[in-house]
Model the fold of this input.
Amino acid sequence: MDENDKNLKELFAGLADESVPFNFEVKIQKKIEERIAKKKESNELFHQISFAVIIAVIISAVLYFLNYKYFGLQINNLKFLLTDSINFTGKIKSMFSNSLSLTWLIIGLNVVLLIFAERLISEKLSRKEKE
Done:
């Protein structure tokens, strides 16, 4: 070692490790992991929302096809949607008096029940994965 190396060694030896706080590496690693988890969560939320939109479009297309092919309902025929009065009993009565409207109502209720059941099952599965 020459004189410069010895001087540098003495200078670096004089520096204490106090310049870096205690648990610095652990804190930085924790922040990095939190940021990764947050990004993963936001990506998962985006995927879930896009999946829900795609499923809603598919269901709407299927319902439109079923209406076009089998039921032939037109929005003008659904008088309970177009009335300006606040007669809710009349609206409900006309809604259930038409068998085609009742069919669409049953289809809608089934879709809601299936979505609700899927949500419950996915929550239970996610709880099992966390354990």
